[in-house]
Amino acid sequence: MLKVRKKKGSRITAVLLALMMAVVFMPTFAFAADGEDEGEGTAADPIKVFMTVSDQGVIAKTNDGDAMAWKEVTVTDLDKSGDFTYDEALKAAHEAYNSADGYVANGMVSKLWGKETTNTLFYINGAGLPNGVTADKVQKDDYLLASINAD
Known about the structure:
This protein has helices spanning 2-35, 86-97, and strands at 47-55, 58-59, 71-75, 84-85, 104-106, 108-112, 115-116, 120-124, 127-128, 137-138, 143-148.
């Protein structure tokens, strides 16, 4: 009788331990599944920002000949990271108001608003970018300024 009771107690204990382990480790399994597609997350919904482009102290022109001052730009999450970089905002502004090939950034911006340049400045809400266009994030309703300076 004692052996039968011990077997039942061991089985119940084993089942309870297995259930507890499954519950405790469940969040870990979920995190592992999320990390499998690194770089291929879910894109955030587009946001609107406002952009001005200065060309050596003069407000640049859009394709329509309008001043590129505080123009509304719809920014999409191109890399599906869940946030928006200044680089994504510049790409969106070029597509909407200049040309898609008017902007080139490979580590640093070498072409802005259709002009080859090595001297540019970028601002978000009046503050200069601390890290660069590919690293700094923009948010809904930010005011962005891109400046082409004399080389």
